[in-house]
Write a structure and sequence with these properties.
- The protein is elongated and about 65 Å long.
- It contains ten helices and three strands, in the order E-E-E-H-H-H-H-H-H-H-H-H-H.
- It folds into three domains: about 50 residues, Arc Repressor Mutant, subunit A (Orthogonal Bundle), CATH 1.10.10.10; about 45 residues, Arc Repressor Mutant, subunit A (Orthogonal Bundle); about 45 residues, no CATH class.
- The chain is mainly alpha-helical.
């Protein structure tokens, strides 16, 4: 009985025997190895938190021991670092014009430990940096604010916008005092 290898493009997809029946090209790998490979693919796209990665692997149907093993191995290899991911996320949100309250909420939603969130927030922006970030974010609303003739309404619009972006009221009041 001879075995013919079928290839589609550059990858060998399967083997076909003389009876025209397909059989897998390779034997099934253990679930832990598959979970680890899946984790590598997930982390190749972007950084994830430990909780996010574990959730994605569980949703793919891997058993809890395989998930834990894959997460631990990724951590050991340095591919998974919650502190680094939290700092990157915070920096990204600051660059997009969000304030500390919104950043804290976003980090909490990613399943990061409260102590880590506090550490990242403590190393974050100073109050003057927050004012500059809020002023920069408010420039996006400049055309809307110019259309409003009533200064009271203009301040209300600016306050709602900045508060919705996650800036504390003290920062918002400093910024809208100039309007």
């Amino acid at each position: 009985m001879s075995v013919k290898r079928l290839s589609f493009g550059t990858k060998s997809a399967a083997k076909m025997n003389d009876d025209n029946r397909f059989r897998p090209a390779v034997a099934r790998r253990p679930a832990q190895s598959e979970a680890l490979q899946s984790a590598f693919r997930i982390l190749a796209r972007r950084d994830h938190t430990t909780g996010e990665l574990a959730l994605k692997l569980r949703r793919k149907g891997y058993d809890p021991t395989s998930v834990d093993s894959a997460v631990e191995r990724c951590r050991d290899l340095g591919y998974l670092d919650d502190a680094r991911t939290a700092r990157m996320m915070a920096d990204h949100l600051v660059a997009r014009g969000y304030g500390p309250l919104r950043i804290r909420q976003a980090l909490g939603q990613k399943g990061l430990e409260e102590a880590l969130v506090e550490q990242v927030m403590a190393a974050g922006q100073s109050e003057d940096d927050q004012v500059r970030t809020a002023q920069k974010a408010l420039k996006k609303k400049a055309s809307r604010l110019r259309r409003e003739s009533d200064p009271w309404k203009r301040r209300q619009i600016a306050y709602r916008f900045l508060a919705g972006r996650g800036f504390p009221s003290a920062i918002v009041n400093r910024v809208i005092a100039d309007i």
